[in-house]
Amino acid sequence: MTLRHFRILIAVVKFKSITAAAKHLYMSQPAVSLAIKEMEEYYGVKLFDRLSRRLFITAEGIKIYESILSIVKNVDDLYDQMQQGFYPNQIKLGASITYGTNFLPTLLKEYLKINPDINTTIMNSGKLIESVLRHELDLAIIEGPISSDKLISSPIINDKLVVIMNKDHHLAKEKNLKLDHLKDQPFLLREPDSGTRKIIDSAFLTFGFMIEPKIESTSTLALIEAVKANLGISIISKRLLDLIAPNDIISMNIKNVALQRPFTLIYLKNRYMNQSFKDLIKLIMQLETK
Description:
Layout lengths: L2 H13 L2 H8 L3 H15 L4 E4 L2 E4 L1 H26 L6 E5 L1 H6 L1 H8 L6 E5 L2 H9 L5 E5 L7 E16 L20 E4 L4 H11 L9 E3 L2 H9 L4 E5 H7 L4 E4 L7 E9 L6 H14 L2
Parallel strand pairs: 3-4, 3-5, 7-8, 7-9
Antiparallel strand pairs: 1-2, 5-11, 6-9, 6-10, 6-11
């Protein structure tokens, strides 16, 4: 197998089409098909199922694809190193929306003194995990814990979630907010793939409580504005709430329901860690233990 075969497989997985992959690679369609056939014969597995003129990677294909991604990334990194004459300093860091709002500016201010070559991306935790696994990010800080045999994960700081509501909401007068008080309330929550939402769903399911939000949003600020308009109640980070300090909103804890989560640093196992990478990890740990 050659690097050419590997790049062809990556393109076919990306575009789910022999024709589209061939166009992207400036190759003929038969040449791409032959390369996939050669790989299937070499590994003795079927890499794709063909349904309705579309390609769907098989379970065996996924294992080979993930290994190939790592190989190609290492080869590309080596090329960059040889071209530049030293290990490149660029770091691609991802952060969850809550972490990005609360901590990222301080982190970047300190890190830029060490290395100005850093790109940052803020998105929900589910997408961050996928991006790290696809080698699109070097490391990321997500909301909540994660267990993966492909990732190193280290909790760095705890965060608390609180219920927020308009100060004129009828539940605002409750001294001890209970889960039963919330069963008929319209919830305004983050999207299902976010770390915050996963923590909420998991905690509530422990008590047999299923949430069907009235509004779902990728923006916590949008949820806060909806709460200001008294459209329902939400659950957000206490740190974020303290940072924004919105008017007309109060926060409450739910009696006997723990809504806590760690921010977790993740990166791929067995990846090369240049000095810039090590410096960033060290700084993240130092900042969060202050």
